[in-house]
Q: What sequence folds into this?
């Protein structure tokens, strides 16, 4: 009888211990879930703080720049076309379009650094015409590399900013400029973040003119937002009210090929930061069945990252066949 009571007491103790373990496991799960929610909130707050800091830095750069005094009180030709941006005191003279470009693309040095990989693709072919040169970052990059280049843009402020830096920028419509060039007149064409602003029926015209004005063996680089990733659609593309439609790589490549150009390669860039992408499981479980689940989860995460948070820009590298 005594042994039975002791055995019953031990069983009771073990049952209570198991219950305590179960409650502890439940509490751990609740804590882990709370930590995951807090981490998401902290990540979102950090992203918002970084956005505000970028906007403030962009405003300060523009206010401190030489153009700030020149455009004070100048009527904004893009009023009603560009979003109103809250600025710091004293920044009300900054052109909205100029400010928007600064906020979206980043500082001049950042943009120049991001474009460096494009210059070697031209392989010394010149002159290069930059269609839609904007603030002239590519022109400055080409100048640093000793490559002759000039730019075309319809934005008066952008062209004036280029000329202030002694860059060869011309206030002209790109189609009018191309139509006025003789055949095989340029060694290369650079066109970044432009085709998404054009009506669909003008894309074949653009590529046809690019093919006509390039020398045999000439190279063109056409960059545009990458619609193959969902983040482009919901986070970046439609922030610019002058964007008309995304241009898929297959559509741009088709227009290029039908114009007689060869698609040499496709360059992808502007990957979202790691904190915005889905995280894989960093673990190697000893149990083979659990390990296979982790591997399948990580493979699915990689696929979803490519679809949802992949490269936000792509560029086709085109070549005109030698005669």
A:
């Amino acid at each position: 009888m005594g042994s039975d009571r002791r055995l019953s007491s031990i069983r009771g103790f073990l049952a209570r211990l198991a219950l305590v373990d179960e409650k502890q496991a439940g509490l751990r799960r609740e804590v882990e879930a709370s930590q995951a929610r807090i981490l998401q909130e902290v990540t979102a707050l950090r992203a918002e703080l970084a956005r505000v800091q970028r906007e403030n830095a962009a405003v300060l750069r523009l206010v401190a720049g030489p153009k700030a005094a020149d455009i004070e009180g100048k009527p904004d030709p893009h009023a009603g076309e560009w979003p109103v941006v809250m600025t710091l005191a004293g920044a009300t003279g900054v052109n909205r379009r100029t400010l928007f470009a600064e906020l979206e693309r980043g500082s001049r040095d950042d943009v120049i650094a991001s474009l460096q990989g494009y210059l070697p693709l031209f392989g010394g072919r010149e002159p290069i015409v930059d269609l839609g040169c904007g603030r002239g970052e590519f022109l400055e990059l080409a100048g640093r590399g000793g490559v002759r280049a000039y730019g075309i843009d319809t934005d008066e402020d952008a062209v004036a900013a280029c000329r202030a830096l002694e860059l060869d920028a011309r206030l002209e419509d790109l189609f009018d400029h191309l139509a006025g060039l003789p055949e095989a007149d340029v060694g290369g064409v650079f066109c970044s973040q432009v085709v998404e602003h054009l009506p669909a029926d003008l894309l074949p015209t653009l590529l046809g003119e690019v093919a006509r004005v390039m020398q045999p063996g000439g190279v063109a680089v056409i960059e545009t937002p990458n619609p193959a990733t969902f983040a482009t659609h919901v986070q970046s593309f439609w922030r610019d009210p002058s964007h008309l439609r995304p241009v898929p790589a297959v559509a741009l490549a088709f227009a290029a090929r039908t114009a007689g150009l060869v698609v040499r390669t496709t360059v992808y860039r502007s990957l979202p930061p790691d904190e915005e992408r889905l995280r894989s499981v960093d673990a190697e479980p000893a149990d083979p069945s659990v390990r296979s689940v982790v591997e399948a989860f990580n493979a699915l995460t990689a696929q979803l990252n490519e679809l949802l948070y992949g490269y936000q820009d792509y560029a086709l590298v085109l070549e005109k066949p030698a005669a």
User: Anything to note?
Assistant: Residues 29 and 69 are 59 Å apart (CA to CA). The mean pLDDT is 79. The longest strand covers residues 214-225.
